[in-house]
Amino acid sequence: MKIAVDCRYIGHSGIGRVCEGILDNLDYSENEYFLIGQKKYLEKYIGAHIVENDTEPYSFKGLRSFDKKLNKLCDAIIIPNFLIPFGIKIPVYSVMHDLIFLDLKQTTRGIKDRLIKKILLKRCMKRSKAITCVSAFTLSRCKHYFGRYAEKCYVAYQGLSKDIINYAEHNAYISVKEDKIVFVGNVKPHKGLKTLLDAFSQVSGLTLKIIGEKENFLTGMNLDVSAYEHVFFTGRISDEELFSEIESAKFLIQPSLYEGFGIPPLEALYLGTQPIISDIEVFREVYKDLPVVYFVDEKDLTEKMKRSPETVDCREFINKQYNYKNFVRNILNRIGTYSGKHQSDKT
């Protein structure tokens, strides 16, 4: 079979990681793949065809940049998000991470922006042959908003990158942790950073490292200056530096108000660091069998940061339960289901 993959998300955190997870686990001798994106990210995938495209996938230009010759060359396309470019005529197999734009109005730039995103989400639901939901929570939100198309949806958990797996194989667990906690991610309001800072200001003897960009950090945060003492931003760092920061920390804190999956706690567990995570539905689903600590509010988080972490050793379980080989197999199985019909349509 000939399968296209929209790889323009590589370089973006989150969805970019998922895209790499898909590409790293494709068998390039089994099918013929056409990878859409920047050559510098894709040339390592030996045996694949590169369809160069440096447009921003989140832009209007990006939505109109699909190379229509792929409609004749390919049998299907994998899109690791809900943004399906215009002009695609072949079957689409998409990945739905969350429906935060509909669930949390504050994540959009007003009524018009929210309406556009709702239209694009509905178009994805309608246009896709099958939709991989990264959690049962995300699937439930698809049913809530787009029940008519929900039979196309199924759950497949994402996994960890090859980079972190390779790093872990060559590094033993750190038994003596530093007096620091880490937060990994952006500073958007739904990530719950204000709750973390409020709680952190009540704790002594620890430093907080925020691994991400400082841009817009103070927006909407009317906190006492003490909340920022012993808080450090790393800015953009390499994967190896990221893994080192996580594995040496006392805790990783994920105070999110909303997630579709939430990968940093899984990375922390893999590196032997216990996560403290917000008590939200998706975390109860994804981390129910793993040694995480849940918190319900600022006061509860403060108390739990004062505790000593438990010893964490669950790599074997994570490898079985959360891996991209299964994620990719699910997508390819569904492409196989529809390929026969599509082939007959083309002839």
Residue ranges: pLDDT <50 for 5 or more in a row?
Answer: 338-347
Name the shape in a single word: globular
Question: What is the straight-line distance between the termini?
Answer: 15 Å
- Arithmetic mean pLDDT: 91
Q: Supply the number of helical segments.
A: 15
The order of strands across the largest sheet is 3-2-1-4-5-6-7
- C-alpha Rg (nearest Å): 21 Å
Largest sheet: 7 strands, parallel
Structural class: alpha/beta
The share of residues in helices is 25-40%
Give the H and E element order. EHEHEHHEEHHEHEHEHEEHEHEHEHHH
Number of strands: 13
The proportion of residues in beta strands is: 15-25%
List the helices and strands and how they pair.
Blueprint: E1 2-6, H1 15-24, E2 32-37, H2 39-42, E3 49-52, H3 60-63, H4 70-73, E4 76-79, E5 92-96, H5 100-103, H6 111-127, E6 128-133, H7 136-146, E7 153-155, H8 162-169, E8 180-184, H9 193-200, E9 207-211, E10 231-233, H10 239-247, E11 251-254, H11 264-270, E12 274-278, H12 281-286, E13 293-295, H13 298-305, H14 315-321, H15 324-346
Parallel strand pairs: 1-2, 1-4, 2-3, 4-5, 5-6, 6-7, 8-9, 8-11, 9-10, 11-12, 12-13
Helix pairs in contact: 9-13
What does this structure look like?
With 347 residues, the protein is of the alpha/beta class. The protein is built from 15 helices and 13 strands. It has a seven-stranded parallel β-sheet, with helices on both faces. Mean pLDDT is 91; it is low at 338-347.
What attributes does this structure have?
single chain, seven-stranded parallel β-sheet, six-stranded parallel β-sheet, 347 residues, globular, disordered C terminus, alpha/beta
